[in-house]
């Protein structure tokens, strides 16, 4: 079965995952991670993409972003991917592919899933046993969104602003949400949607998305589609 094209829509929040080939490291040290962040910042400006959250893990990375055109997200990922692979191969004396196929991507309903997806990303290093707290991992947007540091790459989403009336209130509220953690069922839905490419949201959101694209946005039920019933009026 041919794989579905990635679903990318203008002005919608997208969760993106890019993994290293065969689970190999894609970030060896501080210079590698900083180079990736610099590339993301440059290309986000060039292609008009808002980056709301990110986390760089040793063998993969996550992004939560909103492209302003349908072409902006793939343009950003292609530019970042090619530039980083060229840099990484030259610096580390290697050749060939660095990525495990194409990146994974899903559109999500910001009102329901933007904050949980940010929390999921922040807690990725904790789940992996790299740190005890999200704030201890320097290579994510947690510090910026929790008010611990400035980060020119991060553009707060409108849903983030609903957490409080002042920057201090929003930062504190978000830090508390991360500390409270994420239900395992929510984590599973976030991961499954991103890896499978199905939109994440309620039925009304899914139906509205489907009107904007010919590409299926949710998994069809198993079995054959029901046959149409002919009536005397047809």
Automatic annotation (TrEMBL):
Gene3D superfamilies xref list: Transposase IS200-like
Family annotation (InterPro entries): Transposase_17, Transposase_17_sf
Spans annotated as Disordered: 212-234
Transposase IS200-like domain segment(s): 9-124
Protein name: Transposase
Originating organism: Comamonas terrae
Native organism taxonomy: Bacteria, Pseudomonadati, Pseudomonadota, Betaproteobacteria, Burkholderiales
């Amino acid at each position: 079965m041919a794989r579905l094209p990635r679903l990318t829509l203008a002005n919608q929040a997208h969760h993106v995952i890019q993994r290293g080939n065969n689970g190999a490291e894609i970030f060896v040290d501080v210079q590698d991670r900083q180079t990736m962040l610099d590339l993301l910042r440059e290309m986000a400006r060039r292609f008009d993409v808002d980056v709301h959250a990110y986390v760089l893990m040793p063998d993969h990375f996550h992004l939560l972003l909103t492209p302003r055109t349908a072409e902006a997200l793939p343009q950003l990922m292609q530019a970042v991917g090619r530039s980083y692979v060229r840099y990484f191969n030259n610096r580390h004396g290697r050749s060939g592919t660095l990525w495990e196929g194409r990146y994974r991507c899903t559109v999500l309903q910001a009102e329901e899933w933007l904050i949980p997806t940010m929390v999921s990303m922040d807690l990725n290093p904790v789940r992996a046993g790299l740190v005890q707290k999200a704030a201890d991992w320097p290579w994510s947007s947690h510090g910026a969104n929790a008010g611990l540091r400035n980060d020119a790459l991060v553009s707060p989403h409108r849903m983030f602003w609903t957490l409080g009336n002042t920057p201090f209130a929003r930062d504190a509220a978000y830090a508390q949400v991360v500390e409270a953690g994420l239900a395992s069922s929510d984590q599973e839905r976030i991961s499954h949607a991103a890896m499978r490419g199905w939109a994440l949201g309620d039925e009304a959101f899914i139906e509205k998305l489907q009107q904007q694209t010919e590409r299926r946005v949710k998994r069809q039920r198993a079995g054959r589609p029901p046959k149409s019933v002919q009536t005397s009026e047809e």
